[in-house]
């Protein structure tokens, strides 16, 4: 894989064995500066192992990680932010005390008040982490990942288990971080999250990357077909509809098409009513299903 000037990270032929288990078989990809890169895959695909190798938490069995074109140096840990799971927090500390204790660990931390404001923790300063809701806890973990003003941020399933409102809230904060030009590597089980946040996505399965591209590229490459459905009687009762390829499914007539516009033109040209029409455009979930034969748990 060629090293481009814009690449912040180059991952080359990573492989990791745990005794007899091949967790990561042969993984290569590059991450351009300033993008949000998503690593998606079913349980056991090798995402966590890959990320932990990149984070320098575990070594690879073989393969190379280059950061800014060079092997990672001792300063790598100072330049990256990792959103850990909340089990790593001290229960007896308040939000503010937790932030201050981590703040002291870094040579060039961010302004703590700005961080509290950005992560919407102002009203929660005195609250212990044990008394935070899921969304509040995730915002605290995100604040800790940002405390050293990192250039590269690792987010591990940032919104899993959050209600829709808290999830939107968290995405807004992540969008805001992206706007500053920071680079984000994200693992997620949520296709909606990947579609919303990621500029590029690599889909992993069985220790390998099986597809890579922007969300739209992946959809265009693997799932070109949209699905239109109408009440089955709309087509079943019309002999003229025989010219249109459709199949019955329960009480719906299903039409697969690579051009919604053309199909709608065909229907209207035959005076077929569009009442009750529904359209399903392919999503990343369809891409994932197509490639792995599985859906991702949300
Ligand atoms: N410390 C370990 N010892 C033995 N096997 C391991 C270890 N860590 C991971 N594995 C195995 O390696 C494979 C990949 O695991 P990994 O956790 O990287 O997958 P994942 O894609 O992150 O899955 P999930 O989405 O469930 O977190 C799995 O078969 C897992 O059981």
TrEMBL record:
Keyword vocabulary terms for this entry: ATP-binding, Nodulation, Nucleotide-binding, Transport
Official protein name in the record: ABC-2 type transport system ATP-binding protein
Recorded family membership: Belongs to the ABC transporter superfamily.
InterPro entries noted in UniProt: AAA+_ATPase (IPR003593), ABC_transporter-like_ATP-bd (IPR003439), ABC_transporter-like_CS (IPR017871), ABC_transporter_ATP-binding (IPR050763), P-loop_NTPase (IPR027417)
PROSITE patterns, per database record: ABC_TRANSPORTER_1, ABC_TRANSPORTER_2
PANTHER family: ABC TRANSPORTER ATP-BINDING PROTEIN (PTHR42711), ABC TRANSPORTER ATP-BINDING PROTEIN NATA (PTHR42711:SF5)
GO MF annotations, alphabetized: ATP binding; ATP hydrolysis activity
Annotated ABC transporter domain residues: 9-231
Lineage: Bacteria, Pseudomonadati, Thermodesulfobacteriota, Desulfobulbia, Desulfobulbales
């Amino acid at each position: 894989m060629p090293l481009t000037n814009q690449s912040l990270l180059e991952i080359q032929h990573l492989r990791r064995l745990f005794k007899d288990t091949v967790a990561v078989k042969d993984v290569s990809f590059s991450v351009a500066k300033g993008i949000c890169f998503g690593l998606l895959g079913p349980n056991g695909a090798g995402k966590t192992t890959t990320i932990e190798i990149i984070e320098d938490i575990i070594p690879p069995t073989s393969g190379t990680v280059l950061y800014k074109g060079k092997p990672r140096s001792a300063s790598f840990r100072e330049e990256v932010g990792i959103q850990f799971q909340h089990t790593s927090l001290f229960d007896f500390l308040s939000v503010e005390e937790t932030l201050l204790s981590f703040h002291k660990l870094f040579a060039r931390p961010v302004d703590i008040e700005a961080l509290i404001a950005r992560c919407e923790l102002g009203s929660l300063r005195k609250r212990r982490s044990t008394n935070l809701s899921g969304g509040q806890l995730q915002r605290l973990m995100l604040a800790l990942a940002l405390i050293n003003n990192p250039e590269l941020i690792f987010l591990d399933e940032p919104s899993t288990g959050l209600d829709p409102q808290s999830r939107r809230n968290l995405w807004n904060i992540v969008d805001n971080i992206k706007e500053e030009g920071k680079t984000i590597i994200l693992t997620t089980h949520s296709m909606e999250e990947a579609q919303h946040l990621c500029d590029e996505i690599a889909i992993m399965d069985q220790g390998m990357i099986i597809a890579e591209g922007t969300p739209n590229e992946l959809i265009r490459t693997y799932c070109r077909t949209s699905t239109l459905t109408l009440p089955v009687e709309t087509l079943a009762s019309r002999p003229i509809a025989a010219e249109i390829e459709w199949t019955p499914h329960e009480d719906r007539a299903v039409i697969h098409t690579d051009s919604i516009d053309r199909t709608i033109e065909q229907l209207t040209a035959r005076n077929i009513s569009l009442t009750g029409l529904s359209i399903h455009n392919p999503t990343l979930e369809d891409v994932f299903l197509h490639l792995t034969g599985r859906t991702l748990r949300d």
